[in-house]
Protein backbone atom coordinates (compact mmCIF):
# COMPACT_ATOMS: atom_id res chain seq x y z
CA UNK A 1 0.00 0.00 0.00
CA UNK A 2 2.87 2.37 0.78
CA UNK A 3 4.50 2.06 -2.67
CA UNK A 4 1.19 2.84 -4.33
CA UNK A 5 0.90 6.00 -2.22
CA UNK A 6 4.41 7.03 -3.27
CA UNK A 7 3.53 6.51 -6.92
CA UNK A 8 0.40 8.60 -6.59
CA UNK A 9 2.33 11.34 -4.79
CA UNK A 10 4.94 11.36 -7.58
CA UNK A 11 2.24 11.56 -10.25
CA UNK A 12 0.53 14.44 -8.45
CA UNK A 13 3.84 16.27 -8.07
CA UNK A 14 4.58 15.80 -11.79
CA UNK A 15 1.16 17.13 -12.75
CA UNK A 16 1.78 20.26 -10.66
CA UNK A 17 5.13 21.09 -12.30
CA UNK A 18 5.39 24.02 -14.67
CA UNK A 19 5.10 23.07 -18.35
CA UNK A 20 8.27 22.01 -20.15
CA UNK A 21 9.10 24.04 -23.25
CA UNK A 22 10.90 22.67 -26.32
CA UNK A 23 13.97 24.70 -25.30
CA UNK A 24 13.88 23.18 -21.79
CA UNK A 25 13.79 19.69 -23.28
CA UNK A 26 16.62 20.44 -25.72
CA UNK A 27 18.76 21.84 -22.91
CA UNK A 28 18.29 18.59 -20.98
CA UNK A 29 19.06 16.36 -24.00
CA UNK A 30 22.11 18.22 -25.32
CA UNK A 31 24.58 17.23 -22.54
CA UNK A 32 23.58 13.58 -22.96
CA UNK A 33 24.31 13.74 -26.69
CA UNK A 34 27.69 15.33 -25.97
CA UNK A 35 28.58 12.29 -23.85
CA UNK A 36 27.73 9.92 -26.71
CA UNK A 37 29.05 11.72 -29.80
CA UNK A 38 32.16 13.65 -30.77
CA UNK A 39 31.47 16.76 -32.79
CA UNK A 40 30.07 20.27 -32.63
CA UNK A 41 26.67 20.98 -31.16
CA UNK A 42 24.52 24.05 -31.75
CA UNK A 43 21.34 24.73 -29.81
CA UNK A 44 18.62 26.68 -31.61
CA UNK A 45 15.08 27.61 -30.60
CA UNK A 46 13.68 24.21 -31.59
CA UNK A 47 16.62 21.98 -32.51
CA UNK A 48 20.06 20.67 -31.71
CA UNK A 49 22.30 20.73 -34.76
CA UNK A 50 25.03 18.10 -34.57
CA UNK A 51 28.11 18.14 -36.81
CA UNK A 52 30.07 14.93 -36.35
CA UNK A 53 33.80 14.67 -36.98
CA UNK A 54 33.20 12.37 -39.98
CA UNK A 55 31.27 15.12 -41.80
CA UNK A 56 27.76 13.93 -41.05
CA UNK A 57 25.23 16.56 -39.97
CA UNK A 58 22.05 15.94 -38.01
CA UNK A 59 19.22 18.06 -36.71
CA UNK A 60 17.27 16.85 -33.69
CA UNK A 61 14.05 18.86 -33.75
CA UNK A 62 11.72 19.18 -30.78
CA UNK A 63 8.19 20.40 -31.23
CA UNK A 64 5.26 20.16 -28.85
CA UNK A 65 2.84 17.45 -29.95
CA UNK A 66 -0.78 18.44 -30.22
Which key terms come to mind for this protein?
alpha+beta; 2 helices
List the helices and strands and how they pair.
Blueprint lengths: L1 H14 L6 H15 L2 E5 L3 E6 L4 E5 L5
Antiparallel strand pairs: 1-2, 2-3
Structure description:
With 66 residues, the chain is α+β, with helices and mostly antiparallel strands. It has one domain. 44% of the residues lie in helices and 24% in strands. It is built from two helices and three strands; from the N terminus they run H-H-E-E-E. The chain has a three-stranded antiparallel beta sheet, with helices on one face. A hairpin with a 3-residue loop joins strand 1 and strand 2. The protein is elongated and about 50 Å long. The relative contact order is 0.15. The mean pLDDT is 91.
How many β-strand runs? Answer: 3
Overall average residue pLDDT: 91
- Helix-and-strand structural type: alpha+beta
Helical residues, percent: 40-55%
Report the β-strand fraction as a percent range: 15-25%
Low-confidence stretches: none
Q: Largest sheet, if any?
A: 3 strands, antiparallel
What is the helix tally? 2
The CA-CA distance between the termini, in Å, is 35 Å
Enumerate the strands of the largest sheet in spatial order, edge to edge or round the barrel. Answer: 1-2-3
Envelope shape: elongated
Number of domains: 1
Q: Give the oligomeric state of the chains in this entry, treating copies of one chain as homo and distinct chains as hetero.
A: single chain
The helix-strand sequence is HHEEE
Amino acid sequence: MKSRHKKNAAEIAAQNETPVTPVDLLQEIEPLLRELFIGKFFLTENAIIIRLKNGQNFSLIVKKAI
